[in-house]
Amino acid sequence: MTQTILVADDEPSILLSLQVLLQKAGFAVHLARDGEEALAAVEDVRPHLILLDAMMPKRDGFDVCQTLRADPVHRDVPIIMLTAKSRDIEREKGMALGATDYVTKPFSTRDLVTTVRKHLTAS
């Protein structure tokens, strides 16, 4: 069975590059351009893992993460936060709200795929 990943980011170039990268790695990929799209996609797609940008319009990634962790249906889906903010306070906030992992931009594509596989194996 092909595992499904939801990528939520408001930068079109990042969405496209992650879609290509993850599809080449053998995953089915669904995209969301803001926090509200991400929450709707989680209901429709039921992804195995979510790559979630911290700073997005409508609802930011922190809010989306917190909302998903409060929902028993989606509580255990691994969420990897992606953000350009590398300060410890943002990382701590993401982890406190339930993120499984935290990756700062720019990131190594090879390392990101390794991180995704690690969390899919663990879940």
Q: What can you tell me about this protein's structure?
A:
With 123 residues, the chain is of the alpha/beta class. The chain has a single domain (4-122), classed as Rossmann fold, CATH 3.40.50. Helix content is 46%, strand content 20%. The chain contains five helices and five strands. It has helices spanning 12-24, 35-45, 61-70, 88-96, 109-122; strands at 4-8, 28-32, 49-53, 79-83, 101-104. The protein has a five-stranded parallel β-sheet, with helices on both faces. α1 (12-24) links the parallel β1 (4-8) and β2 (28-32). α2 (35-45) packs parallel to α3. It is globular. 31% of the residues are buried. The mean pLDDT is 91.
Write the layout of secondary structure elements.
Blueprint: E1 4-8, H1 12-24, E2 28-32, H2 35-45, E3 49-53, H3 61-70, E4 79-83, H4 88-96, E5 101-104, H5 109-122
Parallel strand pairs: 1-2, 1-3, 3-4, 4-5
Question: Which short descriptors sum up this protein?
Answer:
123 residues; five-stranded parallel beta sheet; 5 helices; single chain; Rossmann fold; alpha/beta
Brief overview:
The protein is an alpha/beta fold and 123 residues long. The chain contains five helices and five strands; from the N terminus they run E-H-E-H-E-H-E-H-E-H. The protein has a five-stranded parallel β-sheet with strand order 2-1-3-4-5, sandwiched between helices.
